[in-house]
Amino acid sequence: MKTISKREEQILIAIWNLKESAYLLAIKNYLSKIMETDWSVGAIHKPLMKLEKEGFVESRMGEATAKRGGRSKKIYRVSPRGLDALKTIKEEYDALWAKFPVVKKA
Questions:
Q1: Where does residue 93 rank: exposed (0-12), middle (13-18), buried (19+ CB within 10 A)?
Q2: 36 φψ region: left (φ > 0), alpha (ψ -120 to 50), beta (else)
Q3: Is the pTM higher than 0.90?
Q4: Domains of the chain
Q5: Rounded mean pLDDT of 85-100?
Q6: What span, in angstroms and rounded, lies between the C-alpha atoms of 102 and 84?
Q7: Burial call 47-78: b when 16+ CB within 10 Å, e when fewer
Q8: For helices 80-97 and 6-18, what crossing angle results, to 10°?
Q9: Average pLDDT, the chain
Q10: Euclidean distance between CA atoms 8 and 49, whole angstroms
Q11: What angle do CA 25, 1, 46 make, to 5 degrees?
């Protein structure tokens, strides 16, 4: 499997979690909330384009809406290749973290 960066991994997981709502701004807002830091659109756009180019995500144009001035959103979804990558990454992390002690938060 071709490796992906941590940022690309985070974006891929966000797309998986957002399902049909995975468009650029929604991905940005989701990651900003989860990671508790403000992600810029550029920090997502470039890796997202790379993920699409390499076949980890696929996109389609959503319906045009009056709210967006008649423009449509580009909706992303995790491709079968992307899902395989996420499964592999999760298995690797699970193996690496298997013996790490569980620490309770104070």
A1: exposed
A2: left
A3: no
A4: 6-97 (1.10.10.10)
A5: 92
A6: 28
A7: bbebbbeeebbbbeeeeeeeeeeeeebebbbb
A8: 120
A9: 90
A10: 10
A11: 25
